[in-house]
Amino acid sequence: MIDINVIRAQFADIHAEAVKFAEDNKEKEVPAEEQAKQEARFSQMDKLQKQLNDAEKLLAYKFSKNEVQVSEKKPDQIAFEKSENIEPKQFDFDNEDDRKSFGKALGRWATDGAMPAEFSTLTTATSSSAYLPKQVTGGSTIVAGNSIREGMAAVGATPVSLGSTADWNEIVILPAAGSDLTEGNDSGGENNSDGSAAFSKINLKCYGEKSGQIWISNMESRAVNINLLDRTVPALQGAKELRLETKVLSAMAADGGITRVTQTTGDVYADLSALNNSLPKAFDRQKFIVLNSEYYADAVAFRGADGHPVLITDPQNQTLVRFNGTPVIKTDALSGEGSNNIVGLLISCVGFRLRDEDPVEVIRYPNDPAHTGDTGLDLVAYHSHGYLPQSVAKLEFES
After folding, report:
1. Total domains in the fold of the chain
2. Residues of the domain holding 26
3. What average pLDDT does this structure show over 154-175?
4. From the CB of residue 279, how many other CB atoms can be counted at a distance below 10 Å?
């Protein structure tokens, strides 16, 4: 296998000797023997240049056939990447555009050693500014999950759907204790006790939520060999979900009809215990706790008198913690630890509903006069939420 680096180094050394000889003897009569040595240098450089040209053709051919062999890293390169916390990205050989773009860059590198930064990484020989090819990928989308959906999934609850965006009221019957039967009572009043069943409803009228527009330069989207617009859609979906989470939790925090309020005392265990046990018996199941990220951090760090943690990791789901069996979810949608701020909510899915309706629409804005040369994207979906006040309790922060 031809070592291009060795050939390039030999070429550079011979070239430097030839330049020095020419500068030193530009005004001198050069002996035939010395001139022959100079001619030999030119001849050697021609041979090395031909080898580099052949290497370029070989690499380009192998790449077009998807036969490029990635060389193993040397120990000093591994040590450098580890010290710099560099993790090489994976190149997508199944993507034809990736192969073509990388193939062109690789061919140029074989000729003159120049490699675009997007396809290269510095070697340990930083003084020489040498570049080596690296593997590349199309990128990833990082977005936080919807805390409400996480909590519902943890207790086995799922969103509801009607199959359309029509108005929907779910009737809820809450039975109360009946009365004793009194024989021989002609009036029947005692046997027709009012309030033996109370009727309520959960209103699930749809509303639209969107991600918010994002504008992508057409020039930039064509500069990379991936479909940047399609890769953006998961981020738009995540943005819409965060908006939905904020809307639902903020409405609950501000709802004066939710009368079950636990005030913090500085004892995290006592506070969470009071919150966790504040719902009526009928709603004291299928419940989860949502905590502001600041108070969540306090709860994770809190230890009992014997050193045990307040929040215990679920043995079947290492990303989930529980308080006395109740799932606890972190959110950024609730206010921080300030006086009278709601930093936590206890939600029972017995009386809470989240509604999802299709379709999810991605709207493109290709010719907006205010964004010449850009393509806009926006994602729209239809949802609804509703709850009975008895199914939710608040945790209010007291400084």
Report:
1. 4
2. 1-69
3. 90
4. 21
